[in-house]
Request: fold
Amino acid sequence: MSRTIYCTFLNREAEGQDYQIYPGELGKRIYDTISKEAWSQWQTKQTMLINEKKLSMMNVADRKVLEKEMINFLFEGQDVHIQGYTPPSE
Reply:
């Protein structure tokens, strides 16, 4: 049975996460307010960041950069900007 939440990223009711996918208080906030759809959008951006900036998840500093970008994207309404990348036009 899926649960419905008010997704603060999408500004509408949407299907919530099945479980807390990120640790700590930030993970609780994501579980309570970020839908599966919004999280999927973040994962796409996250993959771009890791690849384009050559981030290593073994490096604590790189993980902090990624977490800061995640907070900015999901909660502050800031898109991920990668120097030299232009999104495809639709």
In short: The mean pLDDT is 91. The chain has one domain: 4-75. Strands lie at 4-7, 12-15.
